[in-house]
Amino acid sequence: MPLPRFTRLPAEERRQILEVAQHAFATDGTEHASYNQIIAAAGISKSSAYNYFDGRDDLLHTVLDDIAVRLAAALGPWRRIDDHDEFWAAIHAAGTALGAHLAEHPDDLALIDPAFLLREQGTFAGWVADVVDNGVANGIVTADCDRDLLVAATAAVIRAGDAWAADQLRAGRSPDQEQPWSLVRNLWGARA
Question: Which of 14, 26, 92, 145 is surrounded by the fewest CB atoms within 10 Å?
Answer without folding.
Answer: 145
